[in-house]
């Protein structure tokens, strides 16, 4: 259970503070301030550049992460998993950056109401409820405020005495769906348009064994597999993962040298290895989307989507479904699809438009034009369109390049014993801004 969550600047200023003990025990303001000051004194008193992540002060355990030059801190009196709270704090910082457009002391000060609303939905009575963007965007109503950086080449914001006149701009609604932009024109001219902003791969190796007398199974992985950025093996291009975890029954005596896993599998399905890779991915995203949103008539908006599959020509994606989240009130829709096997459906209750493609071969390009009738459509309403979320399955595909070199059973099985390997990639959260 989390007792307190607070965000401090490098100078010790209290930017955000949430005390979950106050609900049960009010009138604890002085004790709360003392704990915050105690944490800051411990952090600043350390001589090393990297303070410990977990520290204790008067019965409280402080777990913190430093993001954007700020201290993101959670305190607890119990003994929860520190990795869970660290992951929560990093996720809170990432969500704050996504909602506010940047991560800094100024953006936190300008969007304190939005951050408090985020905390109210993410944590209840000290217990973490959710950190999913798809769930939170249905509840967050506060509009984000952005700060335009000062530039000597743009004097339009400079007043009579050099002061800022219109530095802050309020984003249109649905700020929860994407980092804010002051207008759609700025969004398309942004340096980040068309650039991969964030990518994570989470994979696992599973085995299904139905042999009654299998004493040991040897699984050979890529010999050039490296764990972390500093470790390299072999002379060819290394296959890298940031971290990996193994089942407790896996023997690793040959893993460091030969990248071989040894396990005595039980009957049924078992996960022997889990791995994760962040940011620097070895392959490009499988899809590229080229959107266009325009106002047609008084109450009609045109949504044109051109989707390209960047897989090799011999590969295919199965069941991709594309869901742009349009405007608040939808009435009717007509569509023009590039092939007859595609389908499209308007879902007014979900405020969504579903475009389904049964099979998408690599190197192909598909398009769709949707004419959506929206009562009371305005130019500002066009900013509410997006983002686009996709779900798909890529058979025979591993995004990290991790492969099974061999699969051997010991002792050798008599009779029929089929050994085969299947690769598949599933989408978890694949979101594209428009």
Architecture overview:
- It contains 7 helices and 28 strands.
- The chain is an alpha+beta fold and 434 residues long.
- The radius of gyration is 26 Å and the shape is flat.
- It has 3 domains: 4-137, Beta-Lactamase (2-Layer Sandwich), CATH 3.30.450.60; 200-230 and 237-283 and 400-420, Mu homology domain, subdomain B (Immunoglobulin-like, Sandwich), CATH 2.60.40; 287-395, Mu homology domain, subdomain B (Immunoglobulin-like, Sandwich).
- It has helices at residues 29-45, 82-100, 105-110, 112-122, 133-136, 184-189, 255-258, and strands at residues 4-8, 14-19, 54-57, 60-67, 70-76, 123-124, 127-128, 145-147, 168-170, 200-209, 216-221, 225-227, 239-241, 243-246, 260-263, 268-278, 287-295, 300-309, 316-324, 332-337, 343-347, 352-356, 359-361, 365-373, 388-395, 404-410, 424-426, 430-432.
- Strands 19, 21, 22, 23, 25, 27 and 28 form a 7-stranded antiparallel beta sheet that branches. It has a 5-stranded antiparallel beta sheet with strand order 2-1-5-4-3. A 4-stranded antiparallel beta sheet has the order 17-18-24-20, with no helix packed on it.
